[in-house]
Amino acid sequence: GESVGLHLPTLSVQEGDNSIINCAYSNSASDYFIWYKQESGKGPQFIIDIRSNMDKRQGQRVTVLLNKTVKHLSLQIAATQPGDSAVYFCADRPPEYSSASKIIFGSGTRLSIRP
Amino acid sequence: KAGVTQTPRYLIKTRGQQVTLSCSPISGHRSVSWYQQTPGQGLQFLFEYFSETQRNKGNFPGRFSGRQFSNSRSEMNVSTLELGDSALYLCASSPGQGDSNQPQHFGDGTRLSIL
Questions:
Q1: CA torsion sign, A2 to B113 to B67 to A101?
Q2: What CA–CA distance (Å, rounded) separates A75 from B52?
Q3: Which of A44, A95, A105, B56 lies in disulfide reach of A36, CB 3.0 to 4.6 Å?
C-alpha cells in the first residue's frame, strides 16, 4: 500500500543551533528515501537521499539517518542559518514503483529560525 | 546545466475551461512526473512519462491528462476545470533509467487559480 511520511508541522530553532526534523514512514518495504526543501514560491529542492541498505548519509551541513527497525527517518542540519527557513518534506518510493519515479511525500515540517 | 522549466508561472482560469501546462526537463532526463500541491492535500502524484509513454498514474480523474514529446518535454492538460483544481502544479524530471535510485528535480511550478 501507499507509504506516507509523517511530520511534526512546525519546528522553531535558534540560529546557529542544530536542527533535527523527523519523519515516520509506514511501508517497511520502501527502499529509497529523499529529503526536499521548499522555500516560499519555489518548487521542492533536493537535499539528500538514502537507500535502505544504509543507515546514515552525510552531505554538506546535513545528515540523514534511517532507522528501518522503527521506520523512522531524520534530517539533521548543522549550524542552522536563516536561509534554512523552509518547509522540509521527506519522501519515499514504495518498492512496487522501483522501476518508475513515483514517490510519496509526507506532509512537511516548517522550519523557522529565531535570530 | 539548466534546471526544470515550467510555463506559465501563473494562470487564472474560470470553471469549465481547460488548461495546458508545459514542462521542459533537465537536459538528458527522460522521465517527467507531475504533482499537484495544495494546502489541504499536500503533494500528490499525478502521472509519470518516460520515452513518450505514461509509465505510472496517480488517483486523479480522467480530466487530468498528459503527454510527452520526443524531446522529453511534457505537457499536462486539465479539462472542465473545477474550483478544487486551484493548486500549484509541479513538474519533476529524472534520468529515468539505469540506477533507479536517482532523485527527481523539480521546477518552480505553475500556480493555477480557478475563479
A1: negative
A2: 35
A3: A44
DSSP code of residue A6: B
Residue where the block lists cell 521527506:
A90
- The residue type of B38 is T
Q: What is the pLDDT of residues B35-72, one digit of tens each?
A: 999 988 889 999 999 999 998 899 999 999 999 999 99
Counting Cα atoms < 13 Å in the Cβ hemisphere of B102 gives 17
Q: Which residues of B touch A98 (CB under 8 A)?
A: 100
Q: Considering only CB atoms, which chain B residues are within 8 Å of A101?
A: 31, 33, 48, 50, 55-56, 92, 94, 96, 104
Which amino acid would we find at residue A6? L
B78 Cβ under 8 Å from any chain A Cβ: no
